[in-house]
UniProtKB/TrEMBL annotation:
The protein, known as: Methylated-DNA--protein-cysteine methyltransferase
Keyword rRNA-binding: no
Sequence segments annotated as region (Disordered): 1-45
Catalytic activity, as annotated: a 4-O-methyl-thymidine in DNA + L-cysteinyl-[protein] = a thymidine in DNA + S-methyl-L-cysteinyl-[protein]; a 6-O-methyl-2'-deoxyguanosine in DNA + L-cysteinyl-[protein] = S-methyl-L-cysteinyl-[protein] + a 2'-deoxyguanosine in DNA
Keyword entries, A-Z: DNA damage, DNA repair, Methyltransferase, Transferase
InterPro entries listed in its UniProt record: MethylDNA_cys_MeTrfase_AS, MethylDNA_cys_MeTrfase_DNA-bd, MethylDNA_cys_MeTrfase_DNAb, WH-like_DNA-bd_sf
A biological process from GO: DNA repair
Catalytic EC class: transferase
Organism whose genome encodes this protein: Diatrype stigma
EC number assigned by the record: 2.1.1.63
Length: 164
């Protein structure tokens, strides 16, 4: 496939649904700025949980959105770590993040590709690591204290994987 060519992704209904048989994960509190604090400090406000629960998202997407709130401010996780915790695939997680209607309150910007590359954002996948949406993702991450390499294309540090 040529660089910049659109990739076809399966429609949400064609993906295997994961039921909500597991208990809801512990969620972080959202500050007025929309950034989640470290898990365990306080639960996410009931209003956000109600929005996620009442949304038209699939059960899998609701689990992904809830899990995002565990990623501490100033840290990132990877599509692979999220998918391993959910027993799913990284692409399925990416699809759920692409359809996140609650961003940045539910912080999908804290998920990066393996190796620290920024990955996609707002349903857009960059060409050669560039793009307006990636600038927005970088701005959100930098505001939270995430560090980047000299080129500004990769996140430094170990990805967070302490999901409950």
């Amino acid at each position: 496939m040529a660089v910049g060519q659109n990739r076809k992704r399966p429609a949400p209904d064609s993906c295997t649904a994961i039921t909500d048989s597991k208990p809801a994960p512990k969620l972080a509190k959202l500050s007025d700025s929309g950034a989640a604090t470290a898990p365990g400090e306080e639960d996410m406000p009931a209003q956000q949980l109600e929005r996620i629960a009442a949304s038209s998202r699939t059960p899998f997407e609701k689990r992904v959105l809830s899990l995002l709130c565990q990623i501490p401010r100033g840290r990132v996780s990877t599509y692979g770590l999220l998918s391993a915790h959910l027993g799913s695939s990284p692409r399925a997680v990416g699809g759920a993040l692409r359809r996140n209607p609650f961003a940045p309150l539910v912080p999908c910007h804290r998920v990066v590709a393996a190796g620290g590359a920024l990955g996609g954002f707002k349903g857009q996948w960059p060409v050669d690591g560039e793009g307006i949406t990636l600038d927005e993702k970088k701005k959100l991450l930098r505001a939270e204290g995430v560090r980047f390499d000299v080129k500004g294309t990769k996140v430094l540090g170990t990805p967070w994987g302490g999901f409950e």
